Amino acid sequence: MPDSRKSIDCRNFPSEKNCTIAISGTEEEVLDLAVLHAVTVHGHPQTDELREQLRSLLQDEADAKTATA
Description:
Layout: E1 6-9, E2 22-25, H1 27-40, H2 48-57, E3 59-60
Helix pairs in contact: 1-2
């Protein structure tokens, strides 16, 4: 059975940048890109804690709801 798709959407989290990025794919793909995005765009330090925090925010793509929905 293929990995279920996961997603994370910046619109669901307040930021000064009003970011509208949404990422979906396998859990590891989404985590890799979400960490890169959080570090390069939002200025978060790249740490194991950041990766685990982002992992806890992942949603199954079928269940994901955006802030604009």
